[in-house]
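Message: I would love a firmer grasp of how sequence relates to backbone shape in proteins. Thank you; the sequence and its tokens follow:
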Amino acid sequence: MKRREFTLQVAAIATGLAAPAFAQAQGGAPVEGKDYARLAQPIALPATGKVEVVEFFGYWCPHCHAFEPMLEEWARKLPAQVNFRRIPVAFSAPQEPYQRIFLALEAMGQLDAMHRKVFTAIHVQKQRLDKDADILALMTANGIDGAKFTETFKSFTVASKAKQARQMAEAYKIDGVPTLGIHGRYFTSPSLAGGHEQALRVANFLIQRVAKG
């Protein structure tokens, strides 16, 4: 990336995150080891010219469900120079179907339609989605092609994506969700930062730090 392009990118990110960053500054700058952690071994990422932000989450996690509305609004307002994505985490075998639900919906291009509905089914309607039949019933009730979903859910592609998700979670040393990873260098979370809003403010601070080099 050329120096001028990098300077413009930093300016755009700073502009896009200015208001939340100012709010953070009013309470003092985030503190490493308290509000966020630095990875001892940075993760090598493709050179895309963007700052990568990932949310590690699980549909099974009530804290992720509670965090989702604020996170979704925040993600919508991120500048174009920030690439945000979600990575579903499974810490145990019973959580793996929930991970594959996300990956199957992602592969089918149905995340926008179904992401919040899956959270609602689990945490509001109290549905258990750890069995194939129950998962399929939710999908078909919401207009998703059942045969295509089943094929995708059980596909090699989804199995490979689940492996990649596990590897990324291990690289970030994730031991709880929700957690925000910032460009393979830092992570923060509501539990670290002291709340949902605080975690997003810390994320803004770290995004700007990465953009400035």
Observations:
- Residues 1-15, 18-26 have pLDDT under 50 and may be disordered.
- The longest helix spans residues 156-171.
- The chain has two domains: 1-89+174-213, 93-169.
